[in-house]
Design a protein that fits this description.
With 322 residues, this protein is an all-alpha fold. The chain has 13 helices and no strands. 70% of the residues lie in helices and 0% in strands. The C terminus is likely disordered.
Length: 322
C-alpha cells in the first residue's frame, strides 16, 4: 500500500471517529432530529454551492430519476443519520461506533443478496477478523457486554442496513458525477429530515431548539459539518480513487477504535483485552492492504467504483467517492 494514498482514507476515518463523541455532547442541548436536520441543512448548502461552481445549474436536474433519488436520499441520508443520533441517546459513543465496523461486510452482503455477486473471500475474511477485533475493544472480551447495546444497537442495525442499500443503489448512477449524485440525494434526505423534525416538534416528541441551545452546540455543529461532511469526504474520495473501494473500505474499521481513543482521552481506562482488540483490527487492515497491493497500479486511471465492490461509509456525504 502506498503511504501517501493511505493517508487520505485514514484522515477521513479519524475525522468520523471523533465525530461520535462530538455529536453525543451536542445531544445534551439539541434533540436528535433537530440536530441532524441542522447539520445537513448546512452540509447540503455547501454541497450545492460546490456543485454549482463545478458543473452549473443543470446538474441540479434529476434527469427523470426523481423516484430513485428520493428513495436513496431518504433511506441513506435521513435513515442513517437520524437513527445514529437517536441511538446515541441510548448507548455510549464507542458502543454505537462498533456498528460502523460492520458496514464493509453489510455492503458486500447487500450486493450478494441483490446482484448475486459473492464477496471476495479474502476481503470478507479480513473484514470479519477486523470486526472481531473491534468487538473485543467494545465488549472487553465478554459476550455479556453485547447486552448493553439494547435499543441503541437495534437502531444502529437499521442505520447500517439502510446505508448498505443506499451504497448499493449508487451503482445505478455511474453516468453521473459523484458530486452530483451526492448533492441531489443529500437534498432529498435533508428535505425528509426537515419534514420529520417539524412534525416531531409539532406533536411534542421533541422541541425546537432555542437560539441559546444552537449557540451552545456551535462548535460541535461546525466540526460535524466542516470536518465530518466536507474535509473528511474529500479525503475519502481521493483515497478511494487511489486505493480502490474495497481496499479503502477496510479503513472504516478504525472508526470505532478512534472513538474509543477519544473516550480514553476523556478519562476512560481500557483493559488489556481492549488493547488486544485494537491490535487485531489494525493488523487485519494492514493485511488486507498488503494482500490487494498488486492490484493497485499508480499509472492506471482511476477506475469507477460504482459497478465494482461498493464502499461502506459512516457519513452519507461520503458516497461521493463514487
Amino acid at each position: 500500500m502506498r503511504p501517501r494514498a493511505a493517508a487520505y482514507p485514514l484522515l477521513a476515518v479519524l475525522g468520523w471517529g471523533v465525530m461520535f463523541p462530538v455529536l453525543a455532547s451536542a445531544l445534551t442541548r439539541v434533540d436528535p432530529l433537530n440536530l441532524t436536520t441542522a447539520r445537513y441543512l448546512l452540509a447540503s448548502a455547501i454541497l450545492v454551492a460546490i456543485l454549482l461552481l463545478r458543473e452549473g445549474s443543470g446538474a441540479l436536474r434529476h434527469g427523470g430519476r426523481t423516484g430513485e433519488i428520493v428513495l436513496l436520499g431518504v433511506v441513506g441520508f435521513a435513515g442513517f443519520n437520524v437513527l445514529t443520533n437517536l441511538a446515541l441517546e441510548h448507548a455510549a459513543p464507542q458502543q454505537i461506533a462498533l456498528f460502523v465496523a460492520t458496514t464493509p461486510l453489510i455492503t458486500q452482503l447487500v450486493r450478494w443478496a441483490r446482484d448475486g455477486v459473492r464477496p471476495k473471500p479474502l476481503l470478507l475474511a479480513l473484514s470479519l477478523v477486523a470486526l472481531l477485533g473491534v468487538g473485543l475493544v467494545i465488549t472487553r472480551g465478554s459476550l455479556a457486554g453485547l447486552g448493553q447495546f439494547g435499543l441503541g444497537g437495534l437502531m444502529m442495525i437499521g442505520a447500517v442496513l439502510g446505508w448498505g442499500i443506499y451504497t448499493h443503489g449508487a451503482s445505478r448512477f455511474g453516468d453521473w458525477s459523484p458530486l452530483r449524485f451526492t448533492t441531489l440525494t443529500a437534498l432529498a434526505g435533508t428535505a425528509a429530515m426537515l419534514v420529520t423534525s417539524i412534525g416531531a416538534d409539532a406533536v411534542g416528541w421533541q422541541h425546537a431548539p432555542a437560539a441559546a441551545d444552537l449557540a451552545a452546540v456551535t462548535p460541535q455543529l461546525a466540526y460535524a459539518v466542516v470536518v465530518g461532511a466536507v474535509i473528511a469526504v474529500l479525503a475519502w474520495n481521493t483515497g478511494v480513487q487511489r486505493l480502490g473501494a474495497a481496499n479503502a473500505a477496510l479503513f472504516m474499521n478504525l472508526v470505532p477504535v478512534t472513538t474509543f481513543a477519544v473516550q480514553i482521552a476523556r478519562g476512560y481506562r481500557p483493559e488489556p483485552i481492549e488493547l488486544v482488540g485494537a491490535a487485531i483490527t489494525i493488523g487485519a487492515l494492514v493485511a488486507a492492504n498488503l494482500a490487494t497491493r498488486p492490484r493497485i497500479r499508480p499509472s492506471s486511471p482511476p477506475r469507477s467504483t460504482a459497478t465494482t465492490d461498493q464502499i461502506a461509509v459512516v457519513d452519507p456525504v461520503a458516497v461521493s467517492a463514487r
